[in-house]
Amino acid sequence: MKKCFYLIIENEIVGMVSMDKKKLSKVLKSVDTDITSFQEIELNTDFDRLLESEDKK
Q1: The whole model's pTM is what?
Q2: Is 49 left (phi over 0), alpha (psi -120 to 50) or beta?
Q3: How many domains does the chain have?
Q4: What highest taxon heads this organism's lineage (predicted)?
Q5: What angle is formed at CA 54 by the lines to CA 19 and CA 17, rounded to 5 degrees?
């Protein structure tokens, strides 16, 4: 099942991706990347908050 995740490099969010967690984990292990971790986005909270902060800019 697809979920949304933040891609993180040294505690800094560098991107977002929507894909299956196992597939994402496999992809990150198979490519040379600086991404240190990923964190699931609670869509009804984090994503809404992100959109609100974008609207204020």
Answers
A1: 0.60
A2: alpha
A3: 1
A4: Bacteria
A5: 10
* Paired sense of beta strands 12-20 and 37-40, if any: unpaired
Is 41 within 8 Å of 4 (Cβ atoms)? yes
Predicted confidence (pLDDT) per residue in 1-57, tens digit: 778 899 999 999 999 998 899 999 999 889 888 888 899 887 665 565 666 665 665
Task: Tokens 């299956």: give the residue.
Answer: 20
Q: How many CA atoms lie within 13 A of 11 on its CB side?
A: 0
Q: How many C-beta neighbours within 10 Å does residue 23 have?
A: 10
Enclosing domain of residue 51: 2-56
